[in-house]
Structure formats: C-alpha cells, structure tokens
Amino acid sequence: MSSSSLDGRVALVTGGGRGIGAAISRALAEAGACVVIADNGTGIDGIGADPEPAKSLAKSIGKNADAFTDSVASPSAASAAVDLAVSRFGGLDILVNNAAILRDALVFKGDPGDWEAVIRNNLSAAYYLTQSATQVMRGQFKAGRGLGDKYDWGRIVNIISTAGIYGNYGQASYGAAKGGLVALMRVTALEMARSAVTCNAVAPFAHTRVTDIIQPANDEQAAYKERAMKVSPDHVARFVNYLCLPAAQEVSGQIFGVRGREIFLFSQPRPIASLVDESEDWQPESIAHAMGPMAERFTELATDLEAFNSEPIV
Question: How large is the angle between the packed helices 125-143 and 172-192, nearest 10 degrees?
Fold first, then answer.
C-alpha cells in the first residue's frame, strides 16, 4: 500500500452529495476509502430535502460508497449515520463535518428561529457526529484496527469559514457556528490525541452554492464572488485527502485555508500584550490611561472579504 493510499479506511462526509462535500467524497473514494455520503439534499437555507444527490453520487462511486439521506442535525440521526458506516463497511476512520446552511441577516434584524436552525445544522450536528464517531474510533484504537501495532487512521476534519474568524456582515449565525467548529476542533484534538486521532479545521475558498447566491452589496463583495467562482472545490478535497494520510499523523489542532493552489496556516488567538499593575488594583480611569499602547495592537475591524481581496492562484 502506497503512502498516498487510504485503502481500508472508512469515511463519513456530511453535505457530501454536492459542492465541496462531493469533491471530498470523490477524492477519498479515489484514494481507496469507503465513503458514507451523508446529505439530505436540503436547500442552502435548510428548507426542503432531496435524497437524489447523495444516492446518485454513491451510485457513481460504486460498491465502496453508500448514501445516508436523513438530516444529521439530531443525536439519533448522527448516531444512525455512524452506525451505517460501521455496519456497512466495518468501521469509521474519517469524519468530515462539512454540511452547512445559510440564513443571513443583520444581527439587529435576525430571526431567533433562523439562528437556531443554523446553529443546529452547522454546529450541533457536527458535535453529535463527533461525539458518536469518537466513541467508535477510541474502540478501534484499543482493538488495534488498521496496519501496524496501533490504530492511527482516525481523522476528523471540520470545514469552517473565514466568516467564523474575521466575521462578515449579516452572518452572525453562520459565523458563530463556524467559529464554534474551531473550538470543537481544538477540544477534540486535545481529547483524542491519546487515541491517535487527529482533528483539524479547513476554511475553503471555492465555487459552491454559497458563492452562487451571493448578492453583492458593494464592489468588494462583487470582486470576491468573481474570484470565488474561478476556484474549483477539488483543491480543498485534495488537502482534506492529505490530512487523512499517514504523512499527516502529527498534524492536529490546526486551522488551514485552501484557495486554489494556495494553502494557508492560520494563527490562533493567544495573548499578545498585557497590562500589569503590581502596586494597586486597576481602576477604570487607570485602565483608560494605560490602554493607549495596547490599542496599537488591536485587531483591525475588517471582514473576510476584505482580508482575501487578491486574485486566487488557480
């Protein structure tokens, strides 16, 4: 077996029937993994359902793929998807939390019901799947599944968004959910290290249904959409494939971005400055006086569209 092979692995990809998810499903299958394509075919707003995309893709891949067409945004459905992977293919080694919906609104105009729907689908579903999948992976580690003396096939990848890092107008729910996926990734990476399971986050820049529905409100948004439409999701899929290889066994707890042929490693929040007064307690007035130098290091209030306003390398 070559170092680029995923022979023997079993993967579960949510939102795996279309867009970036479909590209990831195909890439993992082409590398030798069996794939459960979890996609209920809902609209980008989370309304409606169509099982055909997941079923059609599974059929095109062949005997090493199966479709799960219920929404995974409940503990029971997430558990059922994991159970399907185990019963159909004998285990679960790779989980890609990719499914997402959008219900954008300015924070002072948003509907609480829309907020709850986005958080449930984009964040809670990922937790339910991670909670169920890690139980399986821990058992496989103890049982020595795979090649060699120990199980080291376990991989979890959360597909996030720069909206969850930088923020963007109208995306309180989407950005909060994607930011939550970063925190979930970090905790999972820490807790699963002893079981040789890695967990990372990937922010994709690619042509998807999300970019299709962007209605530019200014020149920056129009330029962002034009650039995004040029970028194939296959670049993201190849990077996710890499994270699942033996060569990436020591890569865990990291945030990456993929834009065409560019791969970004993001920094993560850590203290960069401090104020200390050892003589007395801080008072509001003294804080205000001391804050001046620290303010020079404040993070700029810019959106992700402004941060990535250069031409992609495609």
Answer: 10
Helix (H) or strand (E) holding 68: strand 65-68
CA 13, CA 27: separation in Å to the nearest integer? Answer: 11
Beta pairing class for 255-259 and 262-265: antiparallel
Identify whether 178 is a catalytic site residue: yes
Which one from 174, 224, 225, 252 is the annotated catalytic residue?
A: 174
Q: How many Å apart are CA 37 and CA 26, to the nearest integer?
A: 10
205 contacts 234 by C-beta, under 8 angstroms = no
In this structure, what DSSP letter does residue 298 have? Answer: P
pTM of the model: 0.95
CA distance 185 to 159: 10
d(CA 184, CA 189): 8
Domains of the chain: 10-268 (3.40.50.720)
Active-site annotation holder among 71, 124, 132, 161: 161
Could you say which of 55, 124, 128, 178 is catalytic? 178
71-118 pLDDT, tens digit per residue, is: 999 999 999 999 999 999 999 999 999 999 999 999 999 999 999 999
SS3 for 159? strand
